[in-house]
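Next up, sample data:
>
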Amino acid sequence: MCGILGVRRSWRDDPAAFRRAVDAMAWRGPDGSRVLEVDDWRLAVARLAISDPGNDQPIADPDGRRVALFNGAVTSAAEEWRRHGASARTRNDAELALLRLREAGETGFVRTSGPCAAAVLDLGGDRLWLLRDRAGEKPFYAVRAGGRIVAFASTPASLRALGLACRLTPQSQGRLLRFGFAPPEFEPEPAGAVFAVEGALRGDRDGVTALPVPEQPGAPREFRGRVVDAAGRAAAADVPLGLCLSGGLDSSCLAVAVAEGGRSLPAYQFRAAGEPEDERRNAARVAERTGHRLRPVDAGPEILDRLPALTRACGLPLGDPSVLAVHALAQAARADGVKVLLSGEGADDLWLGYRRHRLARWLPRTGVPGLPRPGFATGLAARAWRALTGARPYDELLAVAPPGFLAAVLAEGGSGQAELPASHPRATALARARYVDRHLYLRHDLLPKLDTATMAAGVEGRCPYLDPVLLDAPETHAPDARALLGKRPLRRAFARDLPREVVRAGKRGFLVPLDRWLREDSWLAALLREPRTLERPHLRGAGVRAMLELHLRGRARLGHPLYLLAAWEVYLRTLEEPA
């Protein structure tokens, strides 16, 4: 798990700026960095050493014709090393990218398992391949200029250090302030277009070509066996491992799967101070039954203090406040010596486990216009009522900020009604839910949150539920989404292994009690009162003050929408700092 960076010298020959870009991703590589100049490229890797710590990156093939940079993990590495035998010179996952390309061409290069972002340069032919895992677990950004890829990096913060603004568009801002997340879209840059890498790309003198990434259905095992196999691959590491064990169904099934593979791990459970202990009790029951060692992690509003540093590191606004809880958990794990954490992210999105999915089953394709809409209420019932009036009912269920709040705080012409990207125009609300949560919410909220939170603590996060054999499992692709509601495949597969209260428990996740914390002594509330914030052109200062007072007096529960305003302000201030 690393940070990777590459810059064409013919595009930007500035060693000082390159050094700043390397420094900007140092948080991703506490085990050191290496810089290499080859052909027209300056390359760098900041490394969190998980596989083969003795062999650094970037790594070249024996004839020096190709060079690879790799961020992440190949969870099928063990079987691949056995297959390559003596032709492999290291056990560094980066070499697998070279071996696959050499032995099976582009088809082999794109067939990967595990969270990864990789770049391979073919120096003689001035060709470049970029690859990001199908689920989008690892961040990866590139710059295109004159029809060629001229730079790539793990974070926008590193590209910004090169002199690019990397400023998100007003559309991204509107989506974040409404939904709490946004697919990153960057404003045009005179020096080149910044974009998030998706899937696999080939770049050469003729331009940039997207490469097809085939499905990988795997062995025809029953669903439970696929989960156990995926957990075993993710747990294959020569460094200390840990497990995120919230006490909910996803992480509890993962605990069973890991135990079945013969591993006993420290299991970390986060609880915000003052919140109920029911999930901790469930986590304790699961840990006792599966043989893992429960490690409680408790934290209060002090975790909010990490927001500016985490925002500065990744270079994007952090709209999901649970990133702070996951970071506190990852810090506790790193203090115990853990370098890899297994997470249950993805299960709710693949197998429709959120409460809003059950509501979506009964929603119409489009809402009924003209009905009155709750202006400030944020609860599930208010969102469900708003869903009955919206053009995209499921999106109304997902929205964090109520329409009255957005109308009050955003200046005229603001993007208070910014929409998420469309899917099939005739999709049912449940089909829309399936698309949005798998391809937008998981990819642009949950996975960036996990990556930032864990990497900033010096820990690699892995999500076994996003293994290709589960992404491509028949259950995951059930034609009728109703067959998945409530994670039925997962519940059926592991019900006999878990306490009844865990199997029946509803979804909670890493809860951060923003409503309460913002009413206490929080610097976020003070930030929203500062003239520098209130004078932003996208805000109505009087409206922000009014909404804050409404919340502080207990007349509305606006903790999360107010947090989003503060998170965007923190992001803007990082852009205004010297790179």
Observations:
- The chain is about 40% helix and 15% strand.
- The chain has three domains: 2-211, 223-353+433-504, 366-426+513-576.
